[in-house]
Amino acid sequence: MEIKEKDVREFQIAIQENSSYDFSAYSINSLRRRLTKVMEEYNSDINSLIRTIISDSVALEEVVKKITVNTTELFRDPKVWNSILTKLLPRFRKHSSLHIWHPGCSTGQEVYSMMIMLDQLGLLERSKIYASDLNTDVLDSAEKGSYRLRFNREYIDNYNQIFSMTQHENLQISYAPYSRYFKIDEAKDSIQMNDFLRKIPVFKKIDLVKDDNLFFINFDIIVCRNVIIYFNYDLQNRVLNLFHRNMRSNGCLVLGVHESIIGQCSKLFQKEDNFYVKRK
């Protein structure tokens, strides 16, 4: 069943009037696609779905969680990770401390990918890692650091590809086997992150639509990939301004490969390689 724009608007109003969530600044097309998947799963039309979330607060929470789940994998987009490894992280080698925020972290694979790279470069011990999401279920998964092997196997292979692109002697990389970071159990179809990594990140529920930086510190690096693509132009600008205010001088922002900074916020950042550097 086709979802019209007015249906999406009615859904946005129902959510806003019956909860603390606000999807009014989400991209209509992105929200339409998410709603279509939810309707198929519930075997429901949009009118029935709206009636359900109005009358059932538990169902409303479940629908919100399904809509806000973002796809993430270990070492997704090798060229981006190669840029992070070779161009971004070495900028901070002389820093005594390094603060990194992953807003919209979903189930946390990118958080662990970053920590593995920090460890390879000898930066992990001086790094503080923070991660947030609107969806408490995915935050729980991120803290557990347990993933299905079948959905992540090819992304583990991407890590080898990253190192095949890299000149090791120029980066002073301490290459370590995967077993240092996670255990693979073929029989259980699982990847389990090792405890020393799981204990490092601070996870917190943050809604980028309405919350400020609830960690109350400034960051050297913010990694927010494949999140703002779901927002409309005004909300994108609000979030980018939020990031800019909460970054240290010469801080760096990493967005998704299909995301960019346009309009008024383009004055706040300078594009370099696959990331953006904060302008003063």
Summarize the topology:
Blueprint: H1 5-18, H2 28-42, H3 46-55, H4 57-68, H5 78-88, E1 98-103, H6 109-120, E2 127-133, H7 136-144, E3 146-148, H8 149-164, H9 168-171, E4 182-185, E5 190-193, H10 195-198, E6 202-205, E7 219-224, H11 233-245, E8 247-255, E9 269-272, E10 275-278
Parallel strand pairs: 1-2, 1-7, 2-6, 7-8
Antiparallel strand pairs: 3-5, 4-5, 8-10, 9-10
Total domain modules: 2
The CATH architecture of the largest domain can be named as: 3-Layer(aba) Sandwich
How big is the Rg?
A: 20 Å
Strand order of the largest sheet: 6-2-1-7-8-10-9
Please give the CATH class of the largest domain. Answer: Alpha Beta
The averaged pLDDT comes out at 91
Write a short abstract of this structure.
The protein is an alpha/beta fold.
Give a verbal description of the structure.
This protein has 280 residues and is α/β, with parallel strands linked by helices. It contains eleven helices and ten strands. It folds into two domains: 5-68, no CATH class; 78-278, Vaccinia Virus protein VP39 (Rossmann fold, 3-Layer(aba) Sandwich), CATH 3.40.50.150. The strands form two sheets. The chain has a seven-stranded mixed sheet with strand order 6-2-1-7-8-10-9. The chain has a three-stranded antiparallel sheet with strand order 3-5-4. It has helices at 5-18, 28-42, 46-55, 57-68, 78-88, 109-120, 136-144, 149-164, 168-171, 195-198, 233-245, and strands spanning 98-103, 127-133, 146-148, 182-185, 190-193, 202-205, 219-224, 247-255, 269-272, 275-278.
